[in-house]
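Reopening this one. Same input as before:
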Amino acid sequence: MRDLTPILLLAAALGTPAAFAQTARPLSEIAIYPEREASAQAVALNESRIAAEIAARIVALPIEVGQTIARGAVLAQLDCRDHELSLARARAAHDAARSRQELSEQQLRRARELGAKGYFSREALDARETEFEVVRADGAQAQAQLATAERAVTKCMVHAPFRAIVRQRIASVGEFATPGVPLAALADAERVEVAAQVQPADRGSLAQAAEVRFTGSAGPRKLRLIRISPAVDPQARTVEVRLAFTGDPAPPGSAGRIAWRDPRAHLPAETLVRRDGRLGVFVEDAGVARFRPLPQAQEGRPVLAELPAETRVFVSGHLALQDGQRIATASR
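Same output, byte for byte:
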C-alpha cells in the first residue's frame, strides 16, 4: 500500500485544511471500556464416587441417574442381618462384662473393709485389686466392641453426604458390596463454581471488573471472582479463573462464557497511527503534536490508555501529523 503521508502534507500546505482539520479531545471524553469474554464451564466442587464401608448384599438402591437428592438421602440399603447378630453378641458380652465388674468392685470394697480391721492380708488385698483392674479392662474392651458393632449397623444404610445430582448408578440390587467399591457417582448440586480459561493479559481487568456474568444454556447468571491462578497453562497459554455464583448456580457441567467490562480506559482503534514502524497516538502538548508510542497496541484494536485523563488526543487529521508539528487544533 502506498504511503499517503506526503500527499496529505502537500494537500494541507496547498490550502485544503477543511479536509484534514485536526481535532483533539480529552482522553476522558473519547475513552472506551471494551467488553472481555472467555470460555467457561460450571463445575461441581464435589464429584464423589460413594462406596459401602461394610461388606454386605445390596437389597435396595433407590436412586436413578439424573435425580436430584437431598443431603442424607438413602443411596443404598445393605443386608444387615449378620451385623445385627454381631451387635446382639456385643451387647450380651458388654452386659456380662459389666456384671463381672460390679461383682469385682463389691469384692474389692469388702476386702478393703476387712483389711482395715486386720482380717485380710496385704497379699490377698493386692490380688483383689489386680483382679478388679483386669475385669475393668475387660469391660472397656467390651464397650469398644459394642460401639464398633453399633457403628457397623449404621453403615447398612449408605447416605448422600450432600445435596447432589446422581451422575451414575454403578451397582445393582443383589450384588455384593465390598468396602471401597463405588455404588454411585454424585455431583454436588449446591457447591458449584465456574472455571474459566483467561488470557494472562486480561487478569487485571477481570480482577477490577464491577460485574462478571456467566452465559450458558441455562441463561445468564451473575458471578463473583474467587481467585485467579498464578500458573499459566503451557499448552493453551491461559490462566484458570474460579468464580462463584451470587444466586442459584447453573447445573454442573454447563458450558458457556464469562463476560465482563474492562474498567480501564482504552483508546479507540481509529486514533492509532504508525510512525517509524511503531503504533501510537498523537497528543497535543502546548500547541505541538507529540507522538506517543504504545508498545501494546495492535492494528484495528482498542489499546489500554496509559495516559492522564486530561490528555488531549487527536481524533481527526492525525494521519497527516508528524511528531513536533505545530498545529492549530479544532477542539470539541
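So the earlier flakiness isn't reproducible anymore. For the record, The longest strand covers residues 219-232.
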